[in-house]
Amino acid sequence: AAGCLSPEMCFRAVEASVYLPFEEGIRKEKELFLTLFTSSQAKALQYAFFAQRISEKWMLPNGAYWKTANPQPIRKAAVIGLGTMGQGIVVSLVKAKIPVVALEKDKKHLEIAKKAIKASLERNALRMQQKGKTLDIHKSKLLHFTLDFGALKDVDLVIEAVFEDMVLKKEIFCKLSEVCKPETVLGTNTSCLDIDEIASITNRPQQVIGTHFFSPAHVMKLI
Description:
Keywords: Isomerase, Lyase, Multifunctional enzyme. Residues 76-223 form the 3-hydroxyacyl-CoA dehydrogenase NAD binding domain. By secondary structure, the protein is α/β, with parallel strands linked by helices. It has 2 domains: 5-55, no CATH class; 77-210, NAD(P)-binding Rossmann-like Domain (Rossmann fold), CATH 3.40.50.720. It is built from 7 helices and 6 strands; from the N terminus they run αααβαβαββαβαβ. The protein has helices at 5-19, 22-37, 40-55, 84-95, 107-130, 166-179, 195-199, and strands at 77-80, 100-103, 143-146, 157-160, 185-188, 208-210. It has a 6-stranded parallel beta sheet with strand order 3-2-1-4-5-6, with helices on both faces. The longest helix is centred in the middle third of the chain and has 24 residues, at 107-130.
């Protein structure tokens, strides 16, 4: 990755082993190791490593925790808003082999998103093939594009990814309340708006959650 110190330090360690006497090469390798070990990059990577593992062993104030919880299966998902972020979320779900309903506001934006998503999936399929993995992007049941909220009636998860406008988001979540089944989890990708306020417009505020992806959503692991 651009700006990452470790590849350069590895190169310099190998270079020292080639051009310097053994004792000097070992000292240089130790010096480079300590530089990396005390760097802010090392601290950040260590933090991410442990944070990822701690997050898997969660506990809620009501007593529910990771060992006893029964996860709700996500057999089908939907993404509303197919801009750059929405496109990445769709690609992530398809890569996870979760059938997706992708919804846009009009035909023009839907067609633009469809081309971009299919191109991204083709690139991902090629990369996976090179690693000995498969991604069948031509499965008809895996991805459905639509303008109709009615197509969301049987999804288990909705992720809203429209632009940051409270009025628009409330309008969408009001529709989702009417269309989606009672157990559907309604997620918003908002980064700054009040999720409680968004949830208040629905008939199931307890089912509304924040699902903020980091861009590009199909590359970044953090959510």
